[in-house]
From TrEMBL:
It is an enzyme of class 2 (transferase). The keyword ATP-binding applies. This is Nucleoside diphosphate kinase. The keyword Hydrolase does not apply. It is found in: Cytoplasm. The gene is ndk. It comes from Georgenia faecalis. InterPro entries: NDK-like_dom (IPR034907), NDK-like_dom_sf (IPR036850), Nucleoside_diP_kinase (IPR001564), Nucleoside_diP_kinase_AS (IPR023005). Major role in the synthesis of nucleoside triphosphates other than ATP. The ATP gamma phosphate is transferred to the NDP beta phosphate via a ping-pong mechanism, using a phosphorylated active-site intermediate. Homotetramer. ATP binds at K9, F57, R85, T91, R102, N116. It holds the Pfam family NDK.
Length: 138
């Protein structure tokens, strides 16, 4: 079995979509094994998104992710990393397929950063790294 890190981003928490997002993940058959509402500090967010350092959207992305609490979860199941990415849909919410979290519930706003409700780790290496960052006791 496999684990992934899920974040309900600040837009999802603000819009009261935490339950809806976790519901879709659980309804698919995955198991939430850790769950915490958290205000992430800049160091944690910079480490989380280290792969994007130097890109033009890096500073706005950290600002957005720090603009309110997130809900962090560790989710478990066979092929869950791929599965959650599939449930989330494409990064750009305007074109994310209907039926996905982003496709059904997000859109593009006139803001500096793409607000797309949810994060899921993109590989086993990312998942291990991100789970260690957000849930060091696991
Ligand atoms: P995360 O789950 O947040 O990691 O999204 P992702 O894996 O679908 O996308 P990626 O890791 O490539 O990018 C992380 C975040 O940076 C995205 O969710 C967007 O908010 C933002 N982002 C990525 N690419 C772009 C881009 O080309 N332009 C802008 N403005 N923002 C971007
Ligand atoms: Mg990513």
């Amino acid at each position: 079995t496999e684990r992934t890190l899920v974040l309900v981003k600040p837009d999802g928490v603000r819009r009261a979509l935490t339950g809806e997002i976790l519901r879709r993940i659980e309804a698919k058959g995955y198991t939430v094994v850790a769950l915490e509402r958290r205000s992430a500090d800049a160091d944690l967010l910079a480490a989380h998104y280290a792969e994007h350092e130097g890109k033009p959207f890096f500073a706005p992305l950290l600002e957005f992710m720090g603009s309110g609490p997130v809900v962090a979860a560790v989710v478990e199941g066979n092929r869950v990393i791929e599965g959650v990415r599939s449930l989330a849909g494409a990064t750009d919410p305007t074109v994310a397929a209907p039926g996905t979290i982003r496709g059904d519930l997000a859109r593009t706003w006139d803001t500096a950063v793409v607000q797309n409700l949810v994060h899921g780790s993109d590989s086993p290496e990312s998942a291990a790294r991100e789970i260690a960052l957000w849930f060091p006791s696991l």
